[in-house]
């Protein structure tokens, strides 16, 4: 696996847990001088993928690796150091990085992933209110027939 590809994988994994990774970060502290492939200075967490391609063996030797491991054990610095021999491909490197990050979660250095609460079921959509019906037209009262004219006695006819 090319160092560039390995570092891209590691950066994605580390940033996925909320770290702010700066690539190719010089690190000099208490006798350790190394250029880390990725480092979050605020959280003091980073990674180094040791390859022949990058010539890492000149600054990441057995003594540096032991010192970084001791600081990790002491809880003062957390650098994931892995060689191309130990993780030659993504199928090996990804789980190794995840195990490192899980260790940090277990130690309380990183927050545990938040469990997503079960999504409440969406309430059923309320039925559209029935269209209000126009009130039935009240039948107009039947027109009253005019009162019958009183019958008048017919006048007798004149003869």
Please, could you describe this protein's structure?
The chain is an alpha+beta fold. Helices cover 28% and strands 18% of the residues. It has a domain of 104 residues: Endonuclease, Chain A, CATH 3.40.960.10. The chain has 3 helices and 4 strands, in the order H-E-E-E-H-E-H. A 4-stranded mixed sheet has the order 1-2-3-4, with helices on both faces. Helix 1 runs parallel beside helix 3. The radius of gyration is 43 Å and the shape is rod-shaped. The model has no long low-confidence stretch (mean pLDDT 82).
In a few lines, what is going on in this structure?
The chain is of the alpha+beta class and 159 residues long. It is built from three helices and four strands.
Which key features would you list for this structure?
rod-shaped; four-stranded mixed beta sheet; single chain; 159 residues; 18% strand; Endonuclease, Chain A; alpha+beta
> How does the overall form come out from the CA principal axes?
rod-shaped
Please state the second-level CATH architecture of the domain at 3-106: 3-Layer(aba) Sandwich
Mean of all residue-level pLDDT scores: 82
Which sequence of strands runs across the widest sheet? 1-2-3-4
Number of helices: 3
Rg over CA atoms, rounded to whole Å, is 43 Å
CATH class of the domain at 3-106: Alpha Beta
Beta-strand portion reads: 15-25%
* CATH topology tier name of the domain at 3-106: Endonuclease, Chain A
| N→C terminal distance | 142 Å
Order of helices and strands: HEEEHEH
CATH superfamily of the domain at 3-106: VSR Endonuclease
Estimated helix fraction: 25-40%
Strand tally? 4
């Amino acid at each position: 696996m090319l160092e560039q590809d390995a570092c891209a994988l590691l950066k994605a994994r580390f940033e996925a847990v909320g770290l702010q990774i700066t690539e190719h970060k010089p690190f000099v502290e208490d006798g350790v001088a190394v250029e880390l492939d990725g480092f979050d200075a605020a959280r003091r967490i980073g990674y180094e993928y040791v390859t022949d391609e990058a010539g890492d063996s000149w600054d990441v030797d057995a003594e540096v690796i032991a010192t970084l491991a001791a600081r990790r054990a002491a809880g003062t610095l957390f650098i994931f150091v892995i060689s191309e021999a130990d993780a030659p491909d993504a199928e090996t490197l990804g789980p190794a990085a995840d195990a490192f990050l899980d260790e940090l979660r277990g130690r309380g250095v990183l927050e545990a992933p938040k469990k997503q609460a079960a999504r409440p079921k969406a309430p059923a959509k309320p039925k559209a209110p029935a269209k209000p019906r126009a009130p039935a037209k009240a039948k107009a009262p039947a027109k009253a027939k005019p009162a019958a004219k009183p019958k008048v006695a017919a006048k007798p006819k004149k003869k």
